[in-house]
Amino acid sequence: MDASNWSASAWQSESTFHQLSPYIGKTKSSMAAPLVAQYTQQGDTVFDPFSGCGTFAFEAWRAGRHVIANDLSPYASLVTRAKLFPYRTLKAAQRDLEAMTTLVVQQMQCGGHDLRKVPTWVREFFHSETLRETLCWVQVLRERRRWFLLACLMGILHHQRPGFLSFPSSHTVPYLRLKKFPRSKYPKLYQYRPVADRLRAKVERAFRRVPALDFELERKCLSRSAEKLAFANGVDAIVTSPPYMRQLDYGRDNRLRLWFLGCDDWHALDTMISPKEKSFLALMDQCFRRWRMDLKPKGHCVLVVGDACSREGYDNLPERVSHIATQGHGFTLVSSYTDQIPNKRRVRRGLVGNTSETILVLRNAAVSRKRHA
To answer: Whole-angstrom Cα distance, residue 293 to residue 296?
Structure first.
């Protein structure tokens, strides 16, 4: 397994579709692409049951595979759907954006949204007029299922740069930076920011590097519990990165974007998508039981797993997961490779958490499987 280029940043070389909107803990595209190439074949159906922001899913589509992606988080599901169902050209995106702009203007002329119904913690991030416009944009794009444009909007929701919509805040995790950027010294950062021009610029950036894509390939984006998914025709490969078990809080760290997407209770979401150790291992046990039936005989199951268990434990998580698969469900371990996570790649640098991730390559040892009805 050639991992020589995994440590370097992929920001300047990867497709800009991977940069639609930030997502903590995402798998690097420079890691996903070679794993897809090595363990799947062109025309295969590749399943990612914990797709996150869709890195594996997009790289599989890009490589000529049919794709089934799944994630319980509304934000993750949105970004994945945007990558798998983009506009075919920048011009097509721009034309549709102008049509949506007209609808937003009409809605604003009818009075827009009552900001008194918006939680105080959300209002603290925005100039009132910027917030009112953003709410109208979100409503129009959600009602008309414009997922690509909505993902771009989520991508510019908060940061301190002029091209973003919020008052000064971090880019990935929504924390205001009012002490670092006091209003008295940086008054321009607290002015009204029109949405339309910034969204146009974001869409243009998204199309800066787009590979050739086969729009005839089948793509599905689901949002269901991974262990409950079954496929009558099976899948050729499973490539995924399971949730990092309280090492990352996907709900809390995306709470502002989740609120705009209609998810008010990020605490409950974190319980589901970032489970504690015991619940996570039980989930993996259920998934392997299901995957053995859905994965073709000798098909590969590639998992990118963080090195630690939950904050409460210190066991080797990849070994625990591998044991469940091989001892309980008939998988064989083909290879295991551990990749160190440089501190500069981590959102919370210098803090305790996963310092490496292990790529487990498993093979379904079953010679036949029972198809699901």
So the answer is: 8
**94-104 tens-digit pLDDT:** 999 999 999 99
Same domain, 25 and 102: no
Give the global pTM. Answer: 0.91
Alpha helices (runs of H) in 191-346, residue ranges in sequence order: 195-206, 250-253, 255-260, 266-273, 277-294, 317-328
| Cβ contacts of 183 within 8 Å, gap of 6 or more | 189, 190
> Do residues 289 and 321 share a domain?
yes
Confidence at 328, pLDDT banded by 50, 70, 90: confident
Residue 337, domain member (yes or no):
yes
Single residue among 181, 206, 231 that ends a domain in this structure: 206
Q: What are the strands, taking DSSP E only, across 31-114?
A: 45-48, 66-70
C-beta neighbour count of 370 within 10 angstroms: 8
Whole-number Å distance between alpha carbons of 266 and 273: 10
Ranges of beta strands (E only) in 31-85 are 45-48, 66-70
DSSP 6: S
Contacts of 170 (CB under 8 A, 6+ apart): 158, 159, 177
Instruction: Supply the CATH number for residue 63's domain.
Output: 3.40.50.150
331-340 and 356-364 beta bridge pairing: antiparallel
Provide the residue range defining the domain that includes 164: 90-206
pLDDT band per the 50, 70, 90 thresholds, residue 243: confident
pLDDT tens digits, one per residue of 38-49: 999 999 999 999
Q: Are residues 197 and 292 in the same domain?
A: no
Q: Please check whether residues 178 and 225 belong to one and the same domain.
A: no
Indicate the residue type of 25: G
